[in-house]
Every structure is written in structure tokens, then in C-alpha cells.
């Protein structure tokens, strides 16, 4: 057909900007609530996975091609933690990361596992256009993609003597990183 333009859109992948403003506002509030969940600065993977919703845990499992025969949150956490606790799997995951994702993980390792959230988003970009519901809209930001793999976590903790939102790596990845060096 002459004179008509075809606009390609990914089917099933709604874009943040195409959502109505009230929907974006509701999702933004949910994202802020998720960031305020308390975490420990040095915590095992299973404890950090507890801060995520069951639906987001299922997205992490799907991203790692894990077959879930269970639907209880504690069982899903156990299955993901068992899988991501394997040194070979972590090595493969870190090797497959994009350069900017690997740089973020290395920066977190170099800082002892945690850094303030504002410092991370200034350097690596914001996740403000990522939906807090990963099953509806998979994350596209650097930080969001790492979160959807279960590699980094965001929460509120006492860091440098005051309560703030931080980005953390689980203890298992810190131990794995120091053994691999």
C-alpha cells in the first residue's frame, strides 16, 4: 500500500510512555513502596528474595528457565536460591552480562556489596520507566535487568549511619567474586 506507514510495535510489550498518566502514577507509587522495603546490607540471597513479590520471583525463575512445580513463595525462593547458589551458574551469568551491567556489578563488589541508590542511578540510569510488575512489562533499564535476574536488590537500610535506599549484592555473589579474583 502506497502512502501508508507501518509502525512496528512489539506485541505484548507495552511501553511505559504509552500507558495513561494515571496508570504511570500508580505504578510509580508501587515502585517507591518496593524501594522502601527493609533489607540487610550483608544478607544471603534467600533473604533478599523475600523482598520481592511472588509474581516477580516467577519472572526471575522464568529468566533462568527454571521449571516451577510449586506456587508457594517460600518454595519458589528456595528453588531460585538453590539454582543461583551454584558457582558455575554465577560465573556463566556474569560472563553473559552486557558491559554496563558487568560494570555495575563490579562497582558493587568493589564497594563491599552495597551503594546508595542515588549514586547508582546517576551513573547507570534510572529505572523509572520500568514497571514494578515484571510479568507485564519486563524491565529495560540496566538496574532493572539485573534485578530481574536476581543479581542485585534494592531496599532501605542503614548505610553510612543513616537510613537510605541502597542497591545490594547478595553475600553469595561477594564470596563468589572474591574467590574468582
Tell me what you see in this structure.
The chain has 181 residues and is mainly alpha-helical. It has one domain. Helices cover 49% and strands 9% of the residues. The chain is built from 9 helices and 3 strands, in the order ααααααβααββα. The protein has a 3-stranded antiparallel sheet. Strand 2 and strand 3 form a beta hairpin. Helix 3 packs parallel to helix 4. The radius of gyration is 17 Å and the shape is globular. The chain starts with 20 loop residues before the first helix and ends with a helix. The N terminus and C terminus are likely disordered.
Helix content: 40-55%
End-to-end gap: 59 Å
> What is the typical, i.e. mean, pLDDT?
85
Query: How do the helices and strands follow one another from N- to C-terminus?
Result: HHHHHHEHHEEH
Strand order of the largest sheet: 1-3-2
Work out the count of structural domains. 1
Rg from Cα = 17 Å
Structural class: mainly alpha
Q: What's the tally of helices? A: 9
Strand element count: 3
Tell me about the biggest sheet? 3 strands, antiparallel
Mass-distribution shape? globular
Task: Give the strand content.
Answer: 5-15%
Low-confidence stretches: 1-13, 177-181
Describe the structure using short key phrases.
181 residues, mainly alpha, 3-stranded antiparallel sheet, globular, disordered N terminus, disordered C terminus
Amino acid at each position: 500500500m502506497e502512502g501508508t506507514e507501518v509502525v512496528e510495535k512489539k506485541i505484548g510489550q507495552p511501553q511505559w510512555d504509552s500507558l495513561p498518566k494515571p496508570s504511570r502514577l500508580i505504578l510509580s507509587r508501587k515502585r517507591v513502596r518496593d524501594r522502601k522495603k527493609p533489607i540487610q546490607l550483608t544478607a544471603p540471597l534467600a533473604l533478599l528474595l523475600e523482598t520481592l513479590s511472588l509474581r516477580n520471583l516467577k519472572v526471575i525463575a522464568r529468566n533462568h528457565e527454571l521449571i516451577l512445580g510449586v506456587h508457594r513463595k517460600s518454595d519458589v525462593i528456595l528453588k531460585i536460591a538453590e539454582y543461583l547458589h551454584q558457582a558455575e551458574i554465577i560465573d556463566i551469568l556474569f560472563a553473559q552480562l552486557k558491559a554496563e551491567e558487568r560494570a555495575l556489578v563490579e562497582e558493587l563488589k568493589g564497594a563491599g556489596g552495597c551503594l546508595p541508590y542515588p549514586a547508582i542511578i546517576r551513573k547507570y540510569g534510572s529505572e523509572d520507566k520500568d514497571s514494578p510488575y515484571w510479568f507485564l512489562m519486563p524491565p529495560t533499564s540496566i538496574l532493572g535487568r539485573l534485578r530481574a535476574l536476581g543479581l542485585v536488590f534494592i531496599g532501605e537500610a542503614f548505610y553510612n549511619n543513616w537510613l537510605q535506599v541502597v542497591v545490594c549484592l547478595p553475600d553469595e555473589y561477594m564470596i563468589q567474586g572474591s574467590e574468582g579474583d
